[in-house]
Each structure stands twice: as structure tokens, then as C-alpha cells.
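Quick one from the shared queue. A colleague (R.T.) flagged HTH luxR-type domain-containing protein as missing a structural entry in our internal table.

Convert sequence to C-alpha cells.
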Amino acid sequence: MNAVQINEQFTDREFEIISLMAEGASAKEIANHLFVSINTVTTHRKNILGKTTAPNTTALVAKCIRLGWI
């Protein structure tokens, strides 16, 4: 799977969450910013990680920055 295919798999909300994670926001801060529950943020995070080969959030954010997605 190439970078474009992975990029197209993310929803707009997932990109929003990735961007907030890249800014250093915690799950609670993201939830407050997006007016959703922390559980919703956690679910999105798990879905995002499941769509990539990134082992954790830090690696995911680094990969997204490197590929110019955020």
C-alpha cells in the first residue's frame, strides 16, 4: 500500500485528530476542542493506527509530517 492509498483511507475527522496530536494535544484536550468524548477520540486514534503500520501515535504523527499530510 503506497502513501496515497493510506492518505485516502483517513476521514476528515481523523486528519483533524492527527493534526491536534501533532500539536501535542492530549486526548482530553482533543475531546474538548472537538466537542466529543474522550472515548470517541480514543476510538478514532485506534482506527487511525489500524489503518497504518505505525506502532504508536508518535510514529504515526512523524510519518504524517514526513509525507506532508499535516
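The chain has one domain: 12-65.
Confidence is low (pLDDT under 50) at residues 1-6.
Added to the table.
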